[in-house]
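I hope you will forgive my troubling you with a question about protein structure. I should value your view on which stretches of the chain appear to form regular backbone elements. Here, with my thanks, is the record as I have it:
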Amino acid sequence: MINLIKTNEHHQLIIEKKANSLHGTITIPGDKSISHRALMLGAIASGETTIEGLLLGEDPRSTAKCFEAMGAQISELNSKKVTVTGIGQKTLQEPLNVLDAGNSGTTMRLMLGLLAAQPRKFFTVTGDDSLRSRPMARVIKPLQDMGALIYGRNDNKNAPLAVIGQKLKSIHYYSPVASAQVKSCILLAGLMTEGKTTVTEPALSRDHSERMLRSFGATLEIDTDTHSVTIEGGAKLQGQTVIVPGDISSAAFWLVAGAITPNAELIIENVGINPTRTGILEALEMMNADITLENQRETAGEPVADLRVKSSKLKACTIEGAIIPRLIDEIPILAVAACFAEGTTVIKDAEELRVKESDRLAVMATELNKMGANIVELPDGLEINGGVTLKGSTMDSYTDHRIAMSLAIAGLNAQGKTIINRAEAASISYPTFVDTLIKIVS
């Protein structure tokens, strides 16, 4: 029923027909955001860091390769145990070649905060075609305010980038966007800067950097009322043991699949439920999805639970405002859920999706409409008229992992054959996605 076929250098995912039901227990890959940060902080800490449950997708591999090129010793990547021998905050070595962040915006943006604060050292950073088109000015501007020297294409907006490390100064930066990548980049630069560096956001973004920086020994002050974080420069990080929970962004595909597929019941184990990431659970609750949290616990400072989802009759809702930064990566799969909800779902304040691996608003509207969906693209979101019957079609992932997986879940519930071109994109964050898909379908 489901096949992954290689055609030239790309893959087609073929779903022959609609799934009758879904059942099973799923273990999802480690959280991508936490995996990146564990590798980075381990690389600049003193001593040894042990990482359990690391995501083995292409993005964390890009982070590992970049920091190995700058002197960190990282054992072979696996999901059981990875050892990182750090070299200290200000002792990153000049690499012999260009640092390649691949498709990973997190790698490039967070790393820039560290590179900019390496006095008298030179770095060049690039990425794949997609990453070279994505906006970097959002981190370059505040770093320049701190005294950084960074040069790039299109008036310092795009990679490749050249960085000449400097002794930076602390600032208070008022970010125009709620972005964990922007915030984390500035905090990492502030870690190596005298004095206190503060970032204030318009809304709360995910806080994995703050939690992990504290666990490695940094001093931070957090003001939830003003959405501000302050880091005190000069702290010496010490290697830690990091246990990476399952990525709720990966769990989101199965949560929606379980909710919209008839006769479905899935258990997704060991999912991180950090409050800055649970917007997907709140949105699906608004849509009347049947999801329960079981075995709630805490692992290495991060809250974790097993999630049980059952088939349910979804209803439309409006998703906007402060919840958006907490589910920004899950909006493509929420668009799929909305196709099966009764009524019109409106998603607003999500213009950030236009500068991800693809323009996710335009792509999801275009590709789902090929299947017979009724979606109107808004400047900052989508208007999705639910309750239509989706029909199989030939679609494209645009080499965007979240697009590939979202379309696959739509294809599971479409009449007839669905073909997704360039489906290998899913491996960027979820290498075993297709295997899991096959396992749970009945």
The mean pLDDT is 95. The longest strand covers residues 290-299. DSSP finds 14 helices and 24 strands in the chain.
